[in-house]
Each structure stands twice: as C-alpha cells, then as structure tokens.
Predict the structure.
Amino acid sequence: MLRRFLNLIYPPKCVLCQRILDSNVTDLCHSCRINAREFTHGKRNIPFVAQWTALWYYKDDVRSSIHRFKFRNRRKYAESYARLLAMHMEKEGFADWDVATWIPIGPWRNFRRGYDQAQLICQNLQKETGCQIRRFLKKIRNAPPQSGLADAARRRANVLGAYKAVNPALLEGKRILLLDDVITTGATASECARILLTAGAKSVTLAAVAAARQDKI
C-alpha cells in the first residue's frame, strides 16, 4: 500500500527520457525501448579484456540519464541499469565469469557525491542475479577526470598507477566481471583489467551501461 501511495505522488518515470511510465511497464517507456540505440561493439578491442559489452551508445537521452545518475543523485537508476544490463548480458551470452567487481571512484569524489555509481550498479546486479560481488580494486591516485581528456594516449597515461588490487587472495584464478557506467576509449577499463590479471585473475570480462561510438580503442 505504501508503494502504491508513493507511486501516486512520485510516479515511476523512464530512466532515459523521464516520461511517466504506464502502470504495466518498468524502467523504460515504449518509445525508448524501441528507439534507444543498442550498442554493437563490432571489432573494437580493449587490451587485457577478454570480451565486453554495453547496453547503449553514450549519446542523447542515454548521456543525460547517466549524468542525472552521477551528478543529480538519481541513485534509483542503478536498479534499472542493473536489471536491463542483466537481461542484455544473458542475451549476449555473458556467463563466463565467477565474481563481479567494479571500477571505483576516488575517496574524495565518493565523499562529495555520497556514492560510487559503478558500485551501486554492481550491488543491484547482485540483487537481480544472485551473483557474487567483491571489491577487488581501489583508486589510490586522484588523476584528473578522464572526461576532460580527448586523446586516447593521454587517457591511458592518466590512469597509470591510479588503481591497485585489493583482496588478492580471493582474486586468484577467478574469472572477473568488471562493471562501469560509461566506456569511452576503454583506457581505464584496460588498466583495471591489467591490474586484476597481474594480481592473479584468470580473465576479465567488461560490461557497462553505455559506450561511446568509436571505431577502435
């Protein structure tokens, strides 16, 4: 009854376009289910990552949605992202992993924002699928935001030494699913995958809510 009352006051909205949803649908309105550009990565390669996927291209309503999620406290979006990502990974055949982790933000940004967006997606994926999750990465250097660097080489240099592996004993021999909100050049994901493999992981698979359109990494 409480949920129904709250839905009357704050009706559920599409996570992409913010239209009020019909009573029999969740997460996305009919228009966005049809028109949101599903990501197809083709021959793109991210070093140290065995395979990867994303839900959508990082543009238009998808970009606006993720900005609300990260910068306007729309934490509830993590539930929808995780639910949709779980269905997408099942469709794509992404089952070859043992434990999920995430690419973390730094302590200061986490303090200012109040949450780590990729961690929220990972936690909600656990609720959706029952998968095991662990923290395997820690950000140890507050490098400038990757979004401010357009050049792929500068992005790769920017993240060198920015992360370290944690809980390595639990990482040994595991096939890791690495989660993030957005993939642009793949530099951060590649560096995190390299660290996980060096610490003993067997393989790293990557999944994200959105990815930039780009012919190659």
Notes: The chain is about 40% helix and 15% strand. The chain has a mean pLDDT of 89. The chain has two domains: 1-35, 37-211.
